[in-house]
Hints:
Blueprint: H1 15-29, E1 36-37, H2 49-61, H3 78-89, E2 101-104, H4 107-113, E3 123-128, H5 132-141, E4 144-149, E5 167-171, H6 183-196, E6 199-203, E7 229-234, H7 236-239, E8 247-250, H8 263-274, H9 280-288, H10 292-318, E9 323-325, E10 331-335, H11 342-353, E11 355-356, E12 358-359, E13 370-374, H12 379-392
Parallel strand pairs: 1-11, 3-4, 3-5, 5-6, 6-7
Antiparallel strand pairs: 2-8, 7-8, 9-10, 10-13, 12-13
D-malate binds next to loops.
Amino acid sequence: xxxxxxxxxxxxxxxxxxxxxxxxxxxxxxxxxxxxxxxxxxxxxxxxxxxxxxxxxxxxxxxxxxxxxxxxxxxxxxxxxxxxxxxxxxxxxxxxxxxxxxxxxxxxxxxxxxxxxxxxxxxxxxxxxxxxxxxxxxxxxxxxxxxxxxxxxxxxxxxxxxxxxxxxxxxxxxxxxxxxxxxxxxxxxxxxxxxxxxxxxxxxxxxxxxxxxxxxxxxxxxxxxxxxxxxxxxxxxxxxxxxxxxxxxxxxxxxxxxxxxxxxxxxxxxxxxxxxxxxxxxxxxxxxxxxxxxxxxxxxxxxxxxxxxxxxxxxxxxxxxxxxxxxxxxxxxxxxxxxxxxxxxxxxxxxxxxxxxxxxxxxxxxxxxxxxxxxxxxxxxxxxxxxxxxxxx
Length: 393
Ligand code: MLT
């Protein structure tokens, strides 16, 4: 056999695996160190009680021959798809058919797997800094990447390219910078994609953190987006499903390739062959977060994280650091002191403050000079981390 040599082009380890390795090595050498982890965006609040009750009930159904379920639909159960359409899209004036929503085990898998149905000679536009999954999965496929610099001067939303791109990844609220995109700027991206017959892969995993209702929550709020965009959503950061795993992808039937092939049909074909559907239990849990009580519980969990974000943001700014994000996003993007190398600052925070953050360079070369801090920790940890950081910056 021969391997897919594209994998040899990848950087040694997946970013968060590399950070976990460095933290674990430090912890082994210093078992007494009380480490606060504000690196990977993993949640710390318990799941909404309504989702827990729904999942318990779903487990009970498996215990009885009359309610037992085997394989579910590869695309997800109608009960969840109907709730998604009714709560996430209809109120924003977006009409979707059931067969335009594909429930999955999460946005990470879907943003990675979507490349299966896209040609390897497509030119891929990747905002930089960026969630590393988009980069890695395209390197694995052997595609050519074209980086779109994102910095404070373009509000971390990239300049509309002058050259042709076939595929463009956008993620707003943004991981890692915490930036948001305005309706006007998103319209400019959609217009570009329509002009170039490109597809925008729009990762909206953090849309529930948007607090300003003039900002778009879905790309389909933009005229023409159904003809040029796929949207990814997740229950991980809203309902605390990072370990449960459930998300979904929207592929409108209007979206066609250059030669008129339906992307929706291809993705459905791919999913039927490679995926057996998300767990019924997870889907019942996800459905429950759309109930009035579930929605209230989710709102209070998000408020908790956003109060951490506001605290981290203002404290770092008071230390004289330049800070972005954290207003409509659980991520705070902060400049390193005196332009310190981001991996160096990461290691200094780990060893001198016992605080884990994510070095900006790990998200791309334009992330150099920054680190990302998440607001997903506990309130106590967020406060303790700030006190420790204050001592060393
Ligand atoms: C992150 O820290 O960027 C996220 O937790 C990663 C993910 O959602 O896969």
